[in-house]
């Protein structure tokens, strides 16, 4: 069905393009949010990607590659959006010192916040490969095609991104232990 809609959109059918937009907006937004970690920026990047898709769809040669092609345009829109973003943006996330020392119902929230902060510290290129690999379950070959980078670069970025996330999470895990030890000494 997508291929038929793509063909119609390539011929200028706005209704067919609208149907593609409705069908693909959730997945493209989810990827943009995964890369940018900000709802407003993700929405802007998604909208820009749809504008780029509309402008360039007549040049898409292989209609069966629409999904991968749309991811490439989206990732480029995310990169552009991130470049326009101010370098310092306040966040409302918790710092390790703010976290409770005992486990309770807030554990999953804290873990999600720690992961979000770890992802925020990654470059866009590293976030992009993580999102495409683990959110969309793309193979390294598909990621390379989507991002127009060699497969070996995909593997390198994946490894570096995972190492960085792991390092941040391990550092966050050590901070409460140190705080707890200081509190014991003070008693």
Concise structural overview:
The protein is an all-alpha fold. The protein has helices spanning 2-10, 14-36, 39-56, 66-84, 107-120, 124-135, 140-147, 151-186. The protein folds into two domains: 1-90, Rna Polymerase Sigma Factor, Chain: A, CATH 1.10.1740.10; 92-187, Arc Repressor Mutant, subunit A, CATH 1.10.10.
Can you characterise this structure?
- The chain has 187 residues and is mainly α.
- It is 74% helix and 0% strand.
- It has eight helices and no strands.
- The longest helix is centred in the last third of the chain and has 36 residues, at 151-186.
- The protein is elongated, with a radius of gyration of 20 Å.
